Amino acid sequence: MRLRVARTLVALAVPAVLLAGCGSDSGSADKGGSDQGAAALAAVKVDGKAGEKPKVTVKAPFSLKATSTRVITPGKGPEIETGQKVSVNYVLVNGRDGKEVENTFGRQPSTFTADEKQLIKGLVTGMTGQQAGSRVLVGIPPTDAFGAQGNSQLGVQKDDTLLFVLDIESIRTPLAQATGAPVAPRAGLPTVKVDDKGQPTITVPKTTAPTKLVTQPLIKGTGDAVKSGQTITVHYTGVVWPGGKVFDSSFKRGQPASFPIGVGQVVKGWDQGLVGQTVGSRVLLVIPPALGYGKNGQPDAGIKGTDTLVFVVDILDAG
Predict the structure, then answer these.
(1) Alpha carbon distance 127, 71 (integer Å)
(2) Res. 26: pLDDT tops 70
(3) Domain extents for the chain?
(4) Rounded to an integer, what is the distance from CA 257 to the centroid of its chain?
(5) 5-172 with 180-318: one CATH topology?
(6) Does 180-318 carry CATH code 3.40.605.10?
(7) 54 CB-side CA count, 13 A
(8) Rounded Cα gap, residues 25 and 21, in angstroms
(9) Residues 280, 221: contact at Cβ < 8 Å?
(10) How does DSSP classify residue 205?
């Protein structure tokens, strides 16, 4: 049974939108959506300087038939492409009542992946092609947001249109795989072999697993060191020791995963083992039960309370 990472690694929910001097508008270019969408967004007032929390005024109820984007303040940086990591500050307003739902200003920016497999479709549509440094207004109908189920965590109902004001801080392109200098692992650890398609296979010894966390770089990347509070993008495979049975693998899914690191949103062995490692690295983690899922294990993943976890992790991005 294939298990999503959220059922195995993540201990707490990721931000809900991931399922994951005052002034007037200085621009009104429409970069997506119908004529109805462009006209509707033109009536939404966004006050405030770029970089400061905007004030969004909308006549409720507000609805759209298609995702539309209006540039409030144009940027001068590169354009967002599919698959890139995008750091943004945002205000989210519910069109049903015109009330603010979420806001990241004054906190660390959120990092989104411009990929419909990792982010609601409307945000991907609205961001793609926009330039770093821009402030944009994105209107998203329910069909491109949370659909008929809505989002109870956000108080979003099935017919609600969402309005995002996004300040696009930076754009990064994650690595495709670990890249750097090979590192010879010490003896007695699980071995990792990678096939010509980049798929790793982990073989665990028949000996007793170590009782303390082991962090063994297999490739030393040349990127920046990972810091607590950053969101990392990784490829990984996890197996149990003893036995070596695979319980989860983003490599096999062909889709990297992103997690906040060092802040308690993944198992302790990841937080302790990956903070300080460099982007581009491939890291072998051997995680005793106390730093994994504890005495209860993860029955859905076939992990017992006495099982040690072994991961090979390619660190593709951090920010």
Answers:
(1) 10
(2) no
(3) 5-172, 180-318
(4) 7
(5) yes
(6) no
(7) 28
(8) 13
(9) yes
(10) -
Instruction: Name the pairing type of β-strands 162-172 and 135-140.
Output: antiparallel
Q: How far apart are alpha carbons 294 and 316 in whole angstroms?
A: 28
Within 10 Å of residue 204's Cβ, how many Cβ atoms?
Answer: 19
Per-residue pLDDT of 71-93, as tens digits, reads: 999 999 999 999 999 999 999 99
pLDDT tens track for 270-317: 999 999 999 999 999 999 999 999 999 999 899 999 999 999 999 999
151: β partners? 156
What is the pTM for the complete model shown? Answer: 0.75
Fold for 5-172, please state it.
Chitinase A; domain 3 (3.10.50)
**Which among 25, 68, 78 is positioned nearest to 50, based on CA atoms?**
25
Percent residues over pLDDT 70 in the chain = 89
Q: Tell me, what DSSP letter sits at residue 72?
A: E
Q: How far apart are CA 235 and CA 156, in angstroms?
A: 32
Residue 318 and residue 77: Cα distance in Å, rounded? 20
